[in-house]
Amino acid sequence: MTQAPFFSVVIPLYNRVDVVTETIRSVLAQDWTDFEIVVVDDGSHDNPAPVIEAIGDPRLRYIRQDNAGGGAARNRGILAAQGRYIAFLDSDDLFLPGKLSIMAEALAGDGGRTVLYSRMKVDRGVDRYWIRPDRGIREDEDVGEYLFCANQFMQTSTMVVPTAMAQQVLFDPALKKGQDLDFCVRLQGAGARFRMIDRALTIWLDATEVGRTSYVRGYETSLDWLDRCGHMLTGRARRGYRATVLAYHMAPIRPVAAIKDLVIGLAAGGVPPRVIARQVLRSYMPKGAYRSLVNGFVLRFGKADALSRSSARS
Fold first, then answer.
1. pLDDT of residue 213
2. Gap between the Cα atoms of 137 and 80, Å rounded
3. Mean pLDDT confidence for 292-304
4. Are 82 and 35 spatial neighbours (Cβ–Cβ below 8 Å)?
5. Do strands 85-88 and 160-162 pair parallel, antiparallel, or not at all (unpaired)?
6. CA 135, CA 270: separation in Å to the nearest integer?
7. CA end-to-end span of the chain, whole Å?
8. pTM given for the model
9. Whole-angstrom Cα distance, residue 175 to residue 228?
10. Over the stretch 58-95, which tens digit does the pLDDT of each residue have?
């Protein structure tokens, strides 16, 4: 019997045939070789199968399903995974050199409860990048408070999760936004211990299209999630969620109520003033203007060394 790999790298794919080869090659270029790659094609229209099959690596598996959304595609990959740990990677993101070996070393002696994530280089489509998150989760810190009060981030393509735990929790396929936040909160409920690797190991493409999601839909989705899952959050985390997630979608349709949630987040949710200031700009400025403002900040203060898709294979 063939021994199970250490990592299963799960890549959900939808209409990304132009970039997925380089994404896959960023995994194949890793110095840690004990892995499989599971690409789940979520009903793409651009015929990625021949491109993926042409890579010709026996560690690469391709699964096609009818279009059901990113969460369902990730779940299909999770359930098909044969490795001890799942390393998630979106089809337009990249692993940087050494990613898997560093994660494997950090998992030595793990009892199957550790969820790792790392810093990342955020590529906003300009010539420079910035590093997120600002800090790692503290040993005794609630994950909801880390995400919503401190306004930090566990981006999916940085995460490594024990396969058994991922198969127990799974992603919520009904969510159109915030699947990563929901997944992390429910992982904590399943007993996960989170640890950040203090090094950028992934490039995240954050070239979001302006106006892609309506505010009304985002508000309804965010409020519904809070109604369904708020019991998993501390009171402080609930107030943080309303200030850093819900207020953003609420501002264009209920501006006074959004301001109230921002004030409560500052006064009783432990949300730092700088985060509140950023949320005010993000919530009340036009999307395009806010994105231009952030891009200008990154151009002026960001880092410039080796941010390109090809850098992940060097």
1. 47
2. 30
3. 87
4. no
5. antiparallel
6. 16
7. 34
8. 0.93
9. 12
10. 999 999 999 999 999 999 999 999 999 999 999 999 99
